[in-house]
Amino acid sequence: MSPEAYLILSSIIFSIGAMGVMLRRNAIVAFMSIELMLNAANLALVSSSRTWGNLTGQVSAFFVMVIAACEVVIGLAIILTIFRSRRSASVDEPSLLRW
Amino acid sequence: MRIPTPIIEYALILPMLIVFGAAVLSVGFEAFISNKYRRQSQVLLTVSALALALIALIIVGNTNARSLAVEGTIAFDGPGVFMQFIILLSSILATLIMAERRVDPAGDAFAPRASAVAGSEDEVIVTKMGLVQTEVWPLLLFSVSGMLLFVSANDFLVLFVGLEVMSLPLYLLAAMARRRRLLSQEAALKYFLLGAFASAILLFGIALTYAYTGELNFGAVSAGISANNNAAGLLTVAVGLVAVGLLFKVGAVPFHQWVPDVYTGSATVVTAFMASAVKVAAIGGLLRAFFVAYGGYAWDWRPLFWAVAILTMLVGSIVALSQIDVKRMLAYSSIANGGFILIGFASTSRAGTAAILFYLLTYSLATIGAFALVTLVRDPSGEANNITRWKGLGKKSPLMAGLFGFYLLSFAGIPLTSGFVAKFTIFVAAVAGGALPLVLVGVVASVIAAFFYIRIIILMFFSDPDPDGPVVVVPSKITAGAIAFTSVASAVLGVFPQWVIDYVSSVSVFLR
Fold it and tell me: How far is B496 from chain A (nearest CA, A)?
């Protein structure tokens, strides 16, 4: 098993995610791209765990999954609130954001 | 395979456990205490838990030898304990000003119900009903427990978990301002997307560090780096990604774009918390990761920190010149101050660490005081944050304007203020570490910064007030007490800094 191949694959996935965050204007799609980046890191952790023969990387991947789940909860809550507000007629300040 | 039971030194992590336990208890309060008493009990719980944790930290810190705890994943060492102290102290002060209800006639600084659509009928109704969003307090406690973990993490996984526990509640707190709801929600969205992006970059850097060394513990990573000489390209990428992720949290240029927007959009009391405690935590994590884990690799990462420090100081100071909003101006001032702190990274020495610790203490106290004063200047629509509206404030309220001027002089680093001593110690440590060019840029940036601080002082004291201008509201005794504490502490640190400097010099050794 060649460990480099897995690292290269995870780097490619990470780059796709990073480009998605920077290029897409839809908040949900940008958020999905961030999840892709986290999973790329998981792949690197798990494959390196196999290379080095210890469990640290695999255990870390579980922690990352839990954190990613928490991030989904918070992120979707914020995106949902702002979506509902933007559709309403309230304009008290000009938009700050690119999104 | 038999896994041995981990040994957990409960005594050494007691302050973290207290805050975390209080956060869980506080969620219980949300469910079981009736509307009428909920807010008072939450505030009481938050303040007493933080105070108890501070007392526990002082006792534990004085009675136990410095050591690694919890299987080497937590470092109970001098810088860690001192940064936990600063975080707890500034969180208590921030909690006190968050609990303020007198300055805004509508209630406290938070939206009555954060989920209500901004500007809708629903929002008017919940405001009339006098609802209070008490979830602010558990979120605050969770965030503080994450910070305590983050600054003492001695393992990349713990560092990452601490970072997320600290950041996720903050994204929500940013969305909860009572006034200017849309701006607040946009700030939260921007903070969340960029913050999660930075966390993902940090995590990939951690994964690559693991791929290179096969370890996540800081000490083992450091040993792995010195033992391993091939494939240095992988390590360079890993260190670069970790640096980007952590520098984002610090708000260093070129990763600073979120800072002005988030600081402006959030409720001012939340901004005070973010600019003080969160900044301290972010610098703390960066410090430990780069001094301990990547310490042996310092020759390779130091040029990056030089470039970032120079950019941060100059961009922060120059862009602040053109700001017309007080909160935005203070946000750029916070960025510029982050740059001065990064000078301390130029020398991976004890003196550099000590200077950074002292800087963090003085800066967080002055910042909370300054933002607390910003909440007091109001007109009927809320806070008057436009600088031109602050014209002649010195004639309406000499005490408030005088104190604000004092904090501004401290940020500018005028002698006899705490900011001057902090900058001076950091410059001295940098010169000793061979970073003279950085210090010269720092002095130039200080001069530029002094210009805009003094411009505000002139505006407050030497122009005539508008007849329909904002008024300075008299706060409750609690907020007044918090402001008094920060100003007395800043003054003492400015005039008699030596004992604190001696103390931070004695605690500036990282364990590994």
Answer: 43
Q: For residue B175, give the nearest of B216, B136, B222, B224 by alpha carbon.
A: B136
Residue B444 has which token pair? Answer: 């130039």
Q: What is the per-residue pLDDT for B121?
A: 82
Contact criterion met (CB < 8 Å) for A88 and B214: no
Per-10-residue mean pLDDT, chain B, length 512: 84 94 96 90 96 96 88 91 96 94 83 81 82 91 96 95 96 91 87 94 96 93 85 89 95 92 93 95 94 88 93 93 90 94 86 94 95 91 86 89 93 90 93 91 92 89 85 90 95 93 91 80
Domain segments of chain B as ranges? 14-506
What is the C-alpha separation between B343 and B378, in angstroms, rounded? 37
Query: B-contacting residues of A 57-76, CB under 8 Å?
Result: 57, 59-60, 63-64, 67, 70-71, 74-75
Judging contacts by C-beta atoms under 8 Å, the chain B residues touching residue A81 are 114-115, 175, 185
B471 touches chain A (CB under 8 A): no
ipTM for the predicted complex comes to 0.91
B261 touches chain A (CB under 8 A): yes
pLDDT digits (tens, 9 = 90+) for B295-352: 888 888 999 999 999 999 999 999 998 888 899 999 999 999 999 999 998 877 889 9
Interface contact flag, A85 B161, Cβ < 8 Å? no
Separation CA B277–CA B316 (nearest Å) = 20
CA distance A20 to chain B (A): 11
Identify whether the C-beta of residue B325 lies closer than 8 Å to the C-beta of residue B385: yes
Residues whose CB falls within 8 Å of the CB of residue B187, separated by 6 or more in sequence, listed in order: A96, B174, B175, B261, B262, B264, B265, B266
Model confidence pLDDT, tens digit, residues B452-484: 898 899 999 998 888 888 888 889 999 999 999
The CATH code for residues A3-86 is 1.10.287.3510
